[in-house]
Design goal:
The structure is a single chain. The chain is mostly helical. Helices cover about 45% and strands about 10% of the residues. Strands 1-2-3 form a 3-stranded antiparallel sheet. Helix 1 (about 30-45) packs antiparallel against helix 4 and helix 4 (about 85-90) packs across helix 5 (about 125-140). The chain is globular, with a radius of gyration of 18 Å. The two termini are about 20 Å apart.
């Protein structure tokens, strides 16, 4: 299994295939962060979350919502069941862009007695970037979701653990 501490699982910089030469660095989620990402997804689904609404609506109109191929694709998608933004917010360590990965705190009053969140670069990411970063975080957190067999998953986890520098 490797080192069980999420804070010590930081990746090397991962090239962004859609925006060279930029990179991201991610880490494995803690158990609580993983639970929170699943809870956020559950809340979004029960509340009619918008993530796949356009596709779902089209399928409803076409009468193919129960299409077996669609169901199999959803089951095979590692991100199914996880809120992408929760994965990105928890697992993104750094990136090569000038924007901070976490919102800055801006004083709300002239005396600085309390603060409000500043601009949030994660909220400004396009869909492709959110998918990519969330997938890389989940790849480190739940490698079995990306492999056909448990042996493949264990081998991949050992490789990631061996390559991860200690914090």
């Amino acid at each position: 299994m490797g080192n069980p501490f999420a804070s010590q699982s930081q990746s090397d910089p991962i090239p962004l295939p859609f925006d060279p030469p930029h990179t991201v660095t991610v880490r494995k989620l803690t158990g609580r962060e993983c639970d929170a990402a699943q809870q956020a997804h559950a809340v979004a689904v029960s509340g009619g979350g918008a993530r796949h609404w356009a596709t779902t609506f089209r399928r409803m109109l076409e009468g193919s919502l129960s299409d077996k191929v669609q169901v199999e694709q959803a089951i095979r998608d590692p991100l199914t069941g996880y809120d992408r933004y929760s994965l990105v917010r928890s697992g993104l360590v750094s990136w090569s862009y000038p924007q901070p990965t976490k919102p800055a705190r801006v004083p709300a009053t002239s005396n600085g007695s309390f603060t409000v969140p500043g601009p949030d670069a994660v909220d400004d990411l396009d869909d492709e970037a959110v998918d990519f970063i969330a997938t890389e975080v989940l790849r480190r957190t739940k490698p079995a979701l990306f492999h056909a067999t448990e042996e493949d998953a264990e081998r991949a986890q050992k490789e990631l653990s061996a390559a991860a520098p200690l914090a």
